[in-house]
Write a structure and sequence with these properties.
The chain has helices spanning 2-25, 28-31, 41-62, 66-88, 92-116, 118-145. The chain is mainly alpha-helical. It has a single domain, classed as Ferritin. The protein is elongated and about 45 Å long.
């Protein structure tokens, strides 16, 4: 039963993030400069679905521990918030700050989980690696577009 609840919560976070993303993927995001290593759009949904499944399994294995539960909840909130920062609010700099906090939260999860259930910690590694890549991608998109301004409003 615990695994089912973790699965549902993780997938709901994924659906919320997907909603925030899809709404802006073909307008604002399409106009941004992207680095050469930007993955194709079709890759994100299967990767994230897999990662949310692994996260749910990991969370269900350690969720009985109050500290692990709080860390898991924190990283999940930061995870869901990223899509809103980047896509819905069109703010790659804010998303970069969020993903930096997310990266730290996942690191803390891996460390804390390893003391309660080493398998749960290992299940978080693919997620941590993907978020590391996503952090680099977010940084590069911010860097490539930070000087982009809207229409001239001043002299």
């Amino acid at each position: 039963m615990r695994l089912f609840l973790y699965f549902c919560v993780c997938q709901l976070v994924g659906l919320a993030g997907g909603w925030a993303t899809q709404k802006h993927l073909n307008d604002w995001y399409a106009t941004l400069k992207k680095p050469w290593f930007n993955p194709p759009k079709w890759l994100f949904a299967p990767v994230w679905t897999t990662l949310y499944i692994l996260m749910a399994i990991a969370g269900s294995k350690v969720g009985h521990d109050p500290y692990c539960f709080r860390l898991f909840a924190l990283q999940l909130i930061l995870n869901g918030l990223w899509s809103f920062c980047f896509f819905a609010w069109r703010n790659p700099a804010l998303a970069l700050a969020d993903v930096a906090l997310l990266w730290i939260a996942i690191a803390n999860c891996v460390h804390a989980f390893s003391k309660v259930d080493p398998v749960a910690a290992w299940l978080m590694w693919p997620y941590w690696l993907w978020v590391s890549f996503a952090s680099l991608l977010n940084f590069e998109i911010w860097r490539l577009n930070r000087d982009t301004r809207g229409p001239e409003t001043g002299p």
